[in-house]
Specification:
This protein is α+β, with helices and mostly antiparallel strands. Helix 1 packs across helix 4. The protein is built from five helices and six strands, in the order H-H-E-E-E-H-E-E-E-H-H. It has helices at 3-15, 20-37, 85-92, 154-167, 171-192, and strands at residues 44-49, 65-73, 81-82, 104-108, 111-115, 126-132. The chain folds into two domains: 3-40 and 148-192, no CATH class; 43-132, no CATH class. A three-stranded antiparallel beta sheet has the order 1-6-2, with no helix packed on it.
């Protein structure tokens, strides 16, 4: 569904007099609500990070970056581990400008940063797997702009309709669409979260040395 299709379907439900801006508010709010419910497989993206040897933040960090799934050094094959900002400040406060192969990453606010700062020669060496945040849609957004797979786009319609009915104080129809929306989300979770049935999940040791410490 394009956004224009969702708006057209909302209009057939009796919302012709609702301004498109108001429709877009509930459409985007519904998408962001869906996105926040699960770590959906469709939101996983990967890219090779570029660096400039000066900034701790990669120069090509994507605009839709939300959270880290994994960071890999493709030269050594090592994983880069997360550390807290206060740990970096406490342990390495006198070496914050150190340039060498990083061994961890941290966040300052919402900004992803390496520690130490990677050298320019290491550009594209680090692969970031991340969960993407759905960008805000407009009335002209096409189906490809919606990260959620098309076969479940009806959930957007149901969620948006429920919100508009709530605004219009039609509690019966708001609740009916809300129930359909929640049921559709459960169906989506069953459809997408389990991606393989070859073998069961395994528990692996994932400390920095990949070995038991007790």
């Amino acid at each position: 569904m394009d956004v224009s299709d969702i708006i057209a379907r909302l209009n057939t439900m009796g919302f012709e007099d609702t301004a498109d801006d108001d429709k877009m508010d509930v459409i985007n709010d519904t998408l962001w609500d869906i996105e926040s419910r699960q770590l959906w497989p469709w939101s996983i993206k990967s890219l090779n990070l570029t660096v400039n040897g000066v900034s701790a933040t990669p120069t090509n960090l994507p605009a839709d970056f939300k959270s880290v799934k994994w960071v890999t050094d493709t030269t050594t094959g090592n994983t880069l581990w997360w550390e807290r900002l206060d740990t970096i400040r406490n342990r390495y406060g006198s070496q914050l400008s150190l340039v060498q192969d990083p061994w961890c990453f941290f966040f300052q606010g919402d900004t992803f940063k390496f520690y130490p700062i990677p050298a320019t020669a290491s550009t594209t060496r680090y692969v970031l797997d991340y969960y993407a945040q759905q960008p805000e849609l407009t009335t002209t957004s096409v189906e490809a702009n919606i990260y959620m797979p098309p076969r479940h786009h009806r959930a957007i319609l149901l969620g948006a309709a429920s919100k508009i009915y709530q605004i219009e104080d039609d509690q019966e129809l708001a609740q009916s669409n809300k129930q359909d929306y929640e049921q559709r989300l459960q169906t989506m979770a069953a459809d997408y979260i389990k991606k393989q049935y070859v073998n069961p999940d395994q528990i692996f040791v994932i400390d920095e040395d990949d070995e038991w410490t007790y």
